[in-house]
Design a protein that fits this description.
Elements: H1 7-16, E1 21-25, E2 31-38, H2 42-50, H3 52-55, E3 63-65, E4 72-78, E5 81-91, E6 95-101, H4 107-112, E7 114-122, E8 128-135, H5 141-167
Antiparallel strand pairs: 1-2, 2-8, 3-4, 4-5, 5-6, 6-7, 7-8
Length: 176
Amino acid sequence: MIPALLLPLAAILALQSSPVTVERVSAPEKALRFEVTVPAPLDDVWNAFTTQAGLQTWLWKDVRVDLRTGGDWIVQYTPTATGGGTILSFVPRQEIVMRALAPEKFPAVRAARTTAAFRFAADGPAATRVTLWQTGWQAGAEWDAAYDYLARGNAQLLAQLRERFVSGPIDWSKFK
């Protein structure tokens, strides 16, 4: 058991060893930038990110993807907790842009939404660089809290995508 005082240190060390780089951008526009290299070919990573069967191998068991402009890219964690967003555009094997849903605990941010642009680029024959730019941040305490929360949450999301290819698909039957 880790003593309570060491938990913040453990969290900091875990973030420092994360395979995901996170950059908090303040100008010219407030943004979050994430990057991870996934040890898998571009086609495999694209399919894992843009198909229901692929998302179920790493994101969660209850997902839906309608890969078209205006389509859903949604994860249903619980009956009252969803994530993802509405697809604004995509270029096969290169980019998917969506109006992203913030968690329910940030209702103003969730209603207004941010823009999340995921870009995919081959990094040799057996690796793919995934970059996420999240923009559209507004001023205010709730927006600042959502920005901090999603700086951690989206890093975790991309780390989980990478881990799917490092350790294999997640067996969701082990989770209730």
